[in-house]
Amino acid sequence: MYHVPKILQKHGVPRSYVLRNALRAKGYQVSKEGLEEALRVKYAGVYAISSDAGAIPRNCILAHGLPLVRFCALTLSELVQKVSLTPSRMLGLKNKGHLSVGADADITIFDPDNAKVVIVLIKGKACMVSGIIFNNPGRLIVTERGANKLKKQEIPLEVINLEDSLYFKGKRGEGK
Description:
Layout: E1 9-10, E2 13-14, H1 17-25, H2 32-40, H3 55-70, H4 76-90, E3 107-111, E4 116-122, E5 125-129, E6 132-133, E7 140-142, H5 144-150, E8 157-159, H6 166-169
Parallel strand pairs: 7-8
Antiparallel strand pairs: 1-2, 3-4, 4-5, 5-6
């Protein structure tokens, strides 16, 4: 049996309009029981935890994600996948979110006892140590439209095509 937090419901009915519509769309009851069933069969769930990137949001993700590990809601391996590999796949970033040949070598080293980021490496180079940011080899990840808006800014950019993302392909890789 899945526990549905009270914050997600009001008088036993899911609070979120989006959540209620998602339940209706798949034929689930719009109720605590319907949400529990959707969670049980894995129709509903948290697949990724992400931010708009950078060293500071990594701190926030860890500060809020590690308690999920402590409370046994996720394993450390599941948290790592949800904050790295899955968001990268969602945006179609094949060279991010994993450590293998050809990957960017973006690595966050943290102290699990206090959920603090100790070192951040971008492309294998240290860019943050103990909260001090330096030697920033990073770049903004943008679409072509974003790149056109930022042409004059002299900001390092990586242009991506969202057609390679899960946004367009869905979890199973088929087109929408």
